[in-house]
Amino acid sequence: MNYNFVVSKTDLLSRIDLDELMKKDEPPLEFPDTLEGFEYTFNEKGQLRHIKTGEPFVFNYREDLHRWNQKRYEALGEIITKYVYELLEEECHLKKVYVPVDAEETEPRSFIFMSEDALINPDKLMILIQGNGVVRAGQWARRLIINEDLDSGTQIPYIKRAIEEGYGIIILNPNENYIEVEKTKAQEQPSPDSSDEPAEKKERKDKIPKDTKKRRDFYEKYRNPQKEKETMQVFIRENGSPEEHAIYVWDHFISQSLAENVFVVAHSYGGLAFVELMIQRETEVKNKVTAVALTDSVHNVWHQEADKIVREWMRENCCNWVSSSEPLDTSVESMLPDCPRVSAGTERHELTSWNSFPSIFRFFHEAMEAKTSSGKAAPTRRSQRIRYEEL
């Protein structure tokens, strides 16, 4: 092996021009806590625009400071989340319901959103489940909300149309799984005796020249110039993962609803969470759910060990609108023996829920009609090219 090109960390540090690095101090990680503070607002088309220039959001606000720009983007994302929550309550007239339902005052908790008639609507109930990551209740994709518009990035168009068509609504919040609390000093700095570090390694560290240590400390400070507070995660009881959350909401809300027909829209990891719910509550789900619309779902019936009965039910009652260059609703081949797959009419994963929006409502309408005419759940879709007529 040729070691001529191997450069040790010590050699690398010795070449750093400390004076030059000092000129690139990172600005404070302190950002506004309102849209107005960021000088942005949503226009009449639901697009995020700069108040003064009318320009879209700019990620690279400061050149060569990717970490700072990313932190700024994340801070804006938190404001967007609160803004969408406000829209759910004020425009969509949904109510916030906390989980676990029996949480103590001092206990970590999350929440979902429900329409007033969610549990008492005797006809139909729609459940919305987003993918995983930073998105929270009411959102499909933060990136779309910031860079495109509210219609494509949020669940609000689904909610408003569902309410117009007489559905009750329950919005899950599968990614709100824990709260972060600041670590105590004792937790941040374990005693040397409790360290698992070998004695030889500690001895080698002690022998590092002072000058090298100084340069290394400076480098670490430059790489992470503003040491953020150390936090730890405290998980929310029975809601510590998207799968747990879906099962909890099913047990305490959906299964208690009076709706004769439950319809589910699940995007990306939300589809996996639904399949896990199906596996864990098979009989209940089969009896209550009429149809499921998945959008670019990442579920896998083999890895999740879905049995033959679950797979057969999915083939008859589910459809997955996947990212594809084919026209909307065109049949797409699948290697998995589960539900039919059709094109969402876009190759962008995050846009699949928005693009398939009208098709999904027609899919639910057909499933309802088929069930009503036969008196029982009927096959709702086959693997074939489909062109819907406008209702």
TrEMBL record:
Q: Name one GO cellular component term.
A: endoplasmic reticulum
Provenance organism: Pseudonaja textilis
The UniProt GO MF terms for this protein read: siRNA binding
Question: Which GO annotations describe the biological process of this protein?
Answer: neural crest cell development; regulation of alternative mRNA splicing, via spliceosome; regulatory ncRNA-mediated heterochromatin formation
Q: What is the annotated signal peptide range for this record?
A: none
Chain ranges of the Arb2 domain: 31-328
Name of this protein:
ARB2 cotranscriptional regulator A
What SUPFAM superfamilies does this protein map onto?
A: alpha/beta-Hydrolases
Region Disordered: start and end of each range? 183-225, 372-391
Composition-biased stretches (Basic and acidic residues):
198-211
Per the record, the coiled-coil ranges are none
**Matching PANTHER family:** COTRANSCRIPTIONAL REGULATOR FAM172A, FAM172 FAMILY PROTEIN HOMOLOG CG10038
Gene that specifies this protein: ARB2A
